[in-house]
Amino acid sequence: MSPSSNPDRPARSGRREFLRAATALTGLAVLPGSVCATERNAAAPVTEPAEDPPLIYLALDPDEAGFVEHLVEVMCPADELTPGGVECGLAIFIDRQLTGAFGRGERLYLQGPWRPSRPEDGYQLPMTPVQYFKLGLAAADRACAQIYGRNFAALDMTEADLFLQAVAVGKVTSGEVQLDIWFNETVYPLFTQACFSDPVYGGNRGKVFWKMIGYPGLPAVNGLNMTKYRGKPFPGAAAPLSMEDFS
User: Fold this and answer.
1) Range of 81's domain?
2) Rounded CA separation 93/152 (Å)
3) Which residues of the chain have pLDDT under 70?
4) Is position 30 within any domain?
5) What is the pLDDT of residues 42-100, one digit of tens each?
6) Spatial distance between the Cα atoms of 90 and 84, rounded to a whole number of angstroms
7) Phi/psi class of residue 16: alpha, beta or left (left: φ > 0; alpha: ψ in -120 to 50)?
8) CB 160 within 8 A of CB 169
9) Three-class SS state of 217
């Protein structure tokens, strides 16, 4: 079934709507008067990330990296708000998370017996998150090739967007992985974290997403600042500070 032939597919929301939804889910407030989307003022422009370092992937092989790079470019296309997802460091963030403690499942119980579980039980799989991510990615790429005759990385932006939407709502299936759960509970959270995490972890390069929503970075977690500026624009939001700035 081709996603483009599905009349029920969800309409693609704009960048601004995505950011508002994502910040709500992560607990970040878009403050009145903050620098946000096309409302950012000339006195506080969003700067371009610094010159790209070489892309060296530690967890992903070349084909997997190509899939992830295309995915973040589709989900974060270059426009007047930010550079593209690769330039923002989103693919590198995902790779580093899969390489580190999260990907290795260091906080997960990974010994059997494995029994059917309930959704509220959370992650209940006999594999690490990096193994699960790779398994789902390979299954999604094979499903894409069956639908379009090409791997995901070879799709144009419109086709890739339609494919990801179909995956997210369970209209692309695989006998190996439940792809909607894989996308919504693993891929999409990693993408959101890549956008809004501290740049020290590889994503949000140049703090472009923080500047877009008026988030000041580390000063926002100071107790006095939280009380003083609750519901108000933070005066340092145009120049947010990350862990790198205090190192």
Assistant:
1) 3-111+123-246
2) 20
3) 1-54
4) yes
5) 344 444 555 555 679 999 999 999 999 999 999 999 988 889 999 999 999 999 999 99
6) 9
7) alpha
8) no
9) strand
